[in-house]
Write a structure and sequence with these properties.
This protein is of the alpha/beta class. It contains 9 helices and 15 strands. 35% of the residues lie in helices and 24% in strands. 39% of the residues are buried.
Length: 252
Amino acid sequence: MKEERLAKIEQYIREHRSVSLDTLCQMFHVSKNTVRRDVAQITERSDIRKIYGGVSAPYNRIPPSFTERATVNIETKHKIGKCAASIVNDGDIVFIDSGTTTCQIIDFLEARRNITVITHSLDVINRAAAYPNINLICLSGTFNRMTQSFTGQSTIEVLQDLNISKAFMAANGVSMKNGATQSTPIEFAIKKTVVSRSDNVYVMIENRKFGAVSMLSYCRLKDITSIITEKMPNDEFRSAYLELGGSILIAE
């Protein structure tokens, strides 16, 4: 799949900092013309830049803060959040993951009655506190400023005793081979526990994350009930995922 190849090429470039086009051809078994087209797409959507005969990633790149990430594609995130909220029914027990897209759900739950929200996200906690119709369960742990969430063994221990009807999850990427992936080990353990305790798992991602792969897989593709996004993924991914019994919800 092209998107998965693009994600792997980008990851390879970041790991090696500076890579020639010839090396990319050899590593990914594609022609020079294909590599040029792939590189053009990668440089257009990221901070990777073309250099003479190859490409280069910035050294010591500092990840953007939660606040910075929250302002990117905000309209799309609102739409995905609204679509996800439409799945929540009165009386549901839901988990809302930490993330700049998942937190958007809260603002669309005002009309629901007797719902319980479980979360380790500070942003979700602050938003949900304003709605008296939401029973709020806040998970304890050590505060992580990068994700604006509480993490640690105590968080996982509490989750292991909870029954969750619907989990709304964030992901760095979703691919056919690796499912939903996450780059932060401390968040990975929480996500994996939530998936194991949930009747239904909904992954909320922007279309650009299809095919992207991070270090850790916390949920297999076949275990995702629905993927909520703003644009349909390519036909190959869509067909494979639907055959597994999942559904794709398009936010409008």
